[in-house]
Design goal:
The chain is mainly β and about 110 residues long. It has one helix and ten strands, in the order ββαββββββββ. The longest helix has 4 residues, at about 30. The protein is elongated and about 65 Å long. This is Acetyl-CoA carboxylase biotin carboxyl carrier protein subunit.
Length: about 110
């Protein structure tokens, strides 16, 4: 015998898709998710945990957008990390051989 779940009306939320209104329940996982923040121009963060293999720049060095900053090894793959904007390297928050976590601020660039 199938048991039907009962929900209170206040548990439902409204959302609109192409001019149609729907009601749905939100999962606990969705309600407790971390909020997305817009990336800050010039901040280079790690998207995966891993190890810093090599650093190609120094603090105070001018860089162009797309210039190689460092090599980050994650999941047995060496990833080239490049400058998102042109500017001057303000901070380097990693050193070669360091293990870092996801979302670690590796390099900060002051944009031009």
């Amino acid at each position: 015998m199938e048991k039907k779940l009962q929900h209170k009306p206040e548990e439902y939320v409204d959302f609109v898709v192409t001019a149609r209104k729907y009601k749905t329940l939100l999962t606990e996982k969705y309600k407790n998710r971390s909020v997305w923040h817009k990336p800050v121009a010039g901040e280079v963060i790690s998207h995966l945990p891993g190890t810093i293999i090599q650093i190609m720049v120094e603090v105070g060095q001018p860089v162009e957008a797309g210039q190689l900053l460092l090599i980050h090894e994650a999941m047995k793959m060496q990833n080239r990390v490049v400058a998102p904007v042109a500017g001057v390297v303000a901070e380097i928050n990693v050193h070669e051989g360091e293990s870092i976590t996801k979302n670690h601020l590796m390099v900060k660039i002051n944009p031009r």
